[in-house]
Design goal:
The protein is α/β, with parallel strands linked by helices. The protein contains 11 helices and 8 strands. It has a 6-stranded parallel sheet, sandwiched between helices. The chain has a two-stranded antiparallel ribbon with strand order 4-5. Strand 6 (221-225), helix 10 (236-243) and strand 7 form a beta-alpha-beta unit. Helix 7 runs parallel beside helix 11. It is elongated. 41% of the residues are buried. Mean pLDDT is 89; it is low at 11-27. Bound molecules: 2'-O-acetyl adenosine-5-diphosphoribose. 2'-O-acetyl adenosine-5-diphosphoribose (OAD) binds next to helix 3.
Amino acid sequence: MTDAVTGPVTRAPGEALRGYAASVHDREVFGPDAETLPHARAAIAGARRVVVLTGAGMGAESGIPTFRDALTGLWSRFDPHELASVEGFRADPQRVWDWYAERGEGVRRAHPNAGHEALAAWARTHPGRMCVVTQNVDDLHQRAGQPDVLRLHGDILGRRWLDEGRCRERTPCDITAAEPGRPPRCARCGNLVRPGVVWFGEALPAAALDRAQQVAGACEAMLVVGTSGAVWPAAGLAGLARRAGATVVIVNPQESEIDAQAHVRLRGTAAQVLPALLART
Ligand code: OAD
């Protein structure tokens, strides 16, 4: 729709950002929650459609590490080119497979936190009004009972063939029958199984991205929770919503790269702020 970028990239299209920072003219309400919560509440209560854009900070209080937090983020300890690209997987399939398997185990052990629960409860009491667009590859929104979730970066518990369409056999290879291994391998054609996440340089799932852009452009309020705003095209959804007239509320204990898009910034964590924001709204 607006952003030409379809794969996850960390450099924001400069034009989009510059154009945006210049257009921030209406009331900006930053500061302690006691003052800013009512503004955010009013925006959500008055919105017929609310979109929630979530990032890794959403799951931090469930024990799932973020990517860019200085000390605890995965990318402060691991190289994304080695662990989140097709080239990295081809170079060392076992290492990459094991890394995702371990992260997948962490996801299986984790539970939705009070932030996930608050979003799901609001969606249940306001049917058809909330869509969650997540960059997260866990299933915590779904396990909290969130009805409408779009996953932009895939599913860490899912599986795909490394080389889609490689098999020339009449009956396509069955991924569930791949020979167990690290990674599993097709006994017929040798294709490798890879985790079902989107890696850098790959296209986002087109249907999810299209719908995310459509709902972002049609909502009256957007809640942006726990994302650094460093990865596009997901980061561009906040600007898209704002340009289309939505009130943008950012929930994050730290600054993010898309703070210029916010009408209201709530400085706190997902599990603290979302229950306070959404109860009785
Ligand atoms: P980041 O790690 O870049 O950012 C996490 C954000 O969450 C930071 O802004 C933190 O300040 C904030 N945060 C930390 N704890 C929080 C809490 N308890 N409550 C609320 N916010 C908190 O994660 P993402 O923005 O999701 O890509 O990163 C985007 C993409 O980069 C990911 O989807 C992944 C990664 O490479 C792919 O997997 C393709």
